[in-house]
User: Fold these one by one.
Assistant:
Number 1:
Amino acid sequence: MSRKQKLQKNSVIVITGPTASGKTSLAIELAKTINSEIISADSRQIYKYMDICTAKPSKDELKSVKHHLIDFLDPSEDYSAGKFVSDANIILNNLINNNVLPIICGGSGFYIKSLFDGLFEEKSKSNPEIRNKLNEEFKQFGLKYIQEKLNSIDPNSYSKIDLDNPHRLIRALEYYFSTGELLSEAHRNRNQQKSIFDPIYFAIDYHRKDLYSRINDRCEEMWNNGLVNEYKSLINLGYDKDLNSLNTVGYKESRDYIYGVYSESVAIEEFRKNTRRFAKRQLTWFRKNQEIYWLDGKQNSKLNQIKDILEL
């Protein structure tokens, strides 16, 4: 914590890290302090009607600080890192031109990395025939089959990709079968265009057992606050259960509970377990970023830690 960071004209504060670490409340507290606005970097909070499962800020929190890229997309629509980079760049430029120090908040590491380190430009467009075949394999054999297939072909991509996102798993496989080149090697070999913005990264650090305890408590709270009914309402609105947006932790366990695959107690435990696994993958991703200031989760005021580093 001895390092200090000077703010520049194009500085952007990034509050990231694993799920349930307290990113949202810290970002809102900071935004109020410096009169800022928040850009969400969460690949699920973008969707309408998906509030409980995504830990979306409450209505009061959204009123207290202006948020961008949250609650604006239909669950049936796809969104990508490329779209995020394009949308976020427009907002960042507008805020900085109006002398506002922007805050980005979220745990979608690939979105954040793409924004600041450059988005890899794939040398081939999509191949519908190969993609359709992979989608059929996914429907027939399930997510684990697709995960294992990617791991056997491109373990480096497997170690970095969100394993709960079949769209990204299938895209990595599609890229390989279309080009004969591993997607991980393609990322490594291509030149990437760096952002003009200067990110200052923060994440809240907890001992693993403390983070897992927070996750367990939050999963139970989500369940008790109507997670299953939220899933039911999405299905009743006509959204397909196989949508990428609904094939995620929280909704999958709700679905399996509804259809009798799990008892309620087992469904809740599966929800906790899968969320812990997701957090572990997030931590592996973020630990690779040597520029992150890790804030002490045990200290009462994370805001004061940020203010001390930035000398606000």
Note: The chain has a mean pLDDT of 92.
Number 2:
Amino acid sequence: MITIDGSHGEGGGQILRTALALSALVGEPVRIENIRAKRKNPGLARQHLKVIEALCEMTGGRAEGLAVGSTAVEFHPGRLVFDIGTAGSVTLLLQGLFLPSAFSGSSLTLAGGTDVRWSPPVDYLKAVFLPAVKRMGIEARVEVLSRGFYPRGGGRIRAEFSRVEAVSPIEMVHRGRLLEVRGRAFSSNLPVHVTERMARSALETLGREATIERETSRGPSAGAGIVMWAVYENTVIGASALGERGVPADVVGRKAAMKLVEEMKRGAVDSHLADQLIPFMGLAGGQSRILVGEMTGHAQTNIWVTEAVLGETFTVEEVEGGVLIEARGKGFTLS
């Protein structure tokens, strides 16, 4: 059994999700200790329980230590089964289920928050993450059925996967020519002008031509946000900002545009996508290379936990234009 120290690096829930996903694929039991030790409320939260419960259902496995607040769990995966549906709390839940779902060809309906702090907004998932993993041979489609915001949630998405046999290596070092800048400003149960002000402020701050869709809706919870992405010949770079009580919509739009401008200055992969690609690079058959403008603690931690499960795989080097992350993948297949 592999033992993982959940307090390593930034000490958050990503260690748990990555370790569980890789464990489910390679069939190796893991014990994760000191779970979320560096968070204000350490231990398992409800969304982490859902990841483990769903993986147990998908693989026919079992787990020990399943309780809110538990700081140690053991996961004993079974064998992946096919065409499984499950429910959970959206983008971070899907992060833990994505690889097992891709190898099993699952269809998932997930419920919870689609756009909440400290997690990828669902539009970032669709516009930036999915095109990147498609380059690695993974076909997935995500449909937003309803949006959910903190604290009420209530959002729902549908994720459908075409079954893959293996992950292809990826090369995202040169951005190529900028093709277009796009975005989506959205709000639920709020005045229409909120969405318009976010979009207008973002366009003014960006200082270049862009297309930003406006979406207003009624749903189970109130909230707003904006996701923007720059489409290049060889990559997509994204950024986002969420509305907060007391923060003007103009400020939210300006914040998202400023983030995107910064991400566009260096690298071929934005700082949020880099850490999400690490497990895929570790599993791929061959050498993968990505250039990120800045090496984050999340990326460092995900390299550490991926190598804890798969073995030493990665090299990291400061180069002109950013940080080059290379991996000699394990060439994993289910056979």
Note: The first helix runs from residue 13 to 26.
